Amino acid sequence: MKRQVTLDYTLPEGALRPYFEGLREGRAMASHCVICGRVAFPARAQCCGADVEWRALSGRAQVERRTDGGGRGFALVRFEGADTRATVGITNPEASADAGELTMNTEGGAGIWLTLDRDQKGGRNV
Amino acid sequence: MVFDVAIAGGAMTPFNRRKDGSSWRDWARAAAGAALRDAGLQAADIDALVVASESDFFTLQLNPAALLADECGLTGVAAMRVEGGGASGHLAVQAGAAQVAAGLARRVMVLGVEPSASHLAGADIGALYSLSFDAWTDGMTGVDSTSLYALSALAFMERSGADLADFAAVAVRNRAHARANANAHLPLDITAEDVAASPVIAAPYRRLDCSPLSDGAAAVILSRGADAPGRARLRAVASAADRVRLGERADAGVFAGKARAAQRAYAMAGIGAEEIGVAEVYDSYSGAQLQGLEALGFAPDVVAAERAGEFAAAGRLPVNLSGGLLGQGAPVGATGVAQVLTVAQQLEGRYGGQRPARPARFGLVDTHGGIATLNAVSILEAP
Ligand SMILES: [Zn+2]
């Protein structure tokens, strides 16, 4: 037998809404723990058992590990000012720079996308 | 309290991509019936059923525990479903063992099943698997399981000195082991050159470094030792969760949650890693097997031990003689159940495939969901 299921979810973002709103505007909103000082990006709703404060990062990130295949690229990066790393999709996998900038997700999803610098000398393409 | 749980019997179907029109319900019934026969029991002897299945999206069946109890002639039993991503089957065994140990049930059937190959397109399965990580961060970037494992493997390679040849050796050896296993999905006669020539999925991983999507089912029956003479004993059941986001781990290449689960298992069994004589380790990817062996504490330098042949069939600690996920296959809910069954049969000296050069007294089973995010480790002892 054949069955086809189409599911159209609405996912409320709850305490992480400032983080996701930032992503939709191309801004890196990190969580900041007032107790231990940890800055997390992607953000966390809580740290040290308490609610976090919000802090805007520059959106620049340094690539630490990168994998490519099938024309797509993903990387483990650290955003400037963050104590944690993030897993990102690379919008321009043909580029080889080891730094880039957060890019607005045009598809409306929640993923983190990074556009790599056009060359190692710091020229940007955004 | 003495932890007194035995593997009274078990069975599995072949793991492969079904092309015969059979359904996941058929495989589950077949595994359950064969497990009862192996244990010398009737359906009426079973008083609890624990079902393992990773996702209702695969089967398009919610509440599968009740359905399978009914399908397998176990009407009236206590029933539940256990889920923990890739570790689902193994966690179901641990949940069943807890019921026996607590005296809540005398005989528990653990039944794992998954149609990971034939019921959905591979791309759809991949999209569902990507939700095994933090769906709100990784999953929605479209990052797939192979890419996340690749990022972790790159960190492991840099720290440990493991190289592509080490990964290929695992990919080749597990497929070679699978050739002695009649239930294996990929019993391949391949070389390191074949691995290097297979298409890149997410560098450094190529097609032959990845475990396949498989269909299949496996079942074991758990009881107290006195009810299962001559059968292997479960000496330890342990699990531990790690940070879900790869980027929040101190070292993206370390399977720290697995190391924690292993330490708990060794403490519960009262033995050290050096006493393990056979192991089934979660090799969802070739490099992940080495990362897993490191976390399980099997060698101070796991890469040197791998190169010295310590994990080969003739080595000090034979690993994945079944072929592992890479060779035997990976129908998710059934995977961990089959791993436990394999190690039990190895310790009982009745395993049908490749056996260790020296009979083992203790065997270890290691399974995880996510990227070693939810880890299950159990230790079994020969009867
Ligand atoms: Zn904090």
Structure description:
The complex is a heterodimer of chains A (126) and B (383). Chain A has 126 residues and is mainly β. Chain A has one helix at 17-24, and strands at 29-32, 39-40, 46-47, 50-51, 53-56, 60-69, 72-79, 86-90, 99-103, 113-116. Chain A has one domain. In chain A, the strands form 3 sheets. Chain A has a 5-stranded mixed β-barrel. In chain A, strands 2-1-5 form a 3-stranded antiparallel β-sheet. In chain A, strands 3-4 form a two-stranded antiparallel sheet. The longest helix of chain A has 8 residues, at 17-24. Chain B is of the alpha/beta class. Chain B contains 13 helices and 11 strands. In chain B, the strands form 2 sheets. In chain B, strands 3-2-4-7-1-8-11-10-9 form a 9-stranded mixed β-sheet, with helices on both faces. Chain B has a two-stranded antiparallel sheet with strand order 5-6. Chain B is globular and about 55 Å long. The interface between A and B is medium-sized, with 27 and 28 residues. The structure holds zinc ion.
**Main beta sheet of chain A: strand number and arrangement?**
5 strands, mixed, barrel
Largest sheet of chain B: 9 strands, mixed
Largest interface: A-B, 27 and 28 residues
CATH topology of the domain at 5-120 and 213-227 in chain B: Peroxisomal Thiolase, Chain A, domain 1
CATH architecture label name of the domain at 5-120 and 213-227 in chain B:
3-Layer(aba) Sandwich
Total beta-strand segments of chain A: 10
Q: For the record, what CATH class of the domain at 5-120 and 213-227 in chain B applies?
A: Alpha Beta
Quaternary form: heterodimer
Strand order of the largest sheet of chain A: 6-7-8-10-9
Mean pLDDT of chain B: 97
Distance between the first and last residues' Cα of chain B: 20 Å
Fraction of residues of chain B in helices?
A: 25-40%
Q: Spans of chain A with pLDDT under 50 lasting ≥5 residues? A: 122-126
* Order of helix and strand elements from N to C terminus of chain A: HEEEEEEEEEE
Order of helices and strands of chain B: EHEHHEHEHHHHEEEEHEHHHHEE
The best one-word shape of chain B is globular
Task: Identify low-pLDDT runs of chain B.
Answer: none
**How would you write the strand order of the largest sheet of chain B?**
3-2-4-7-1-8-11-10-9
Rg calc of chain A: 16 Å
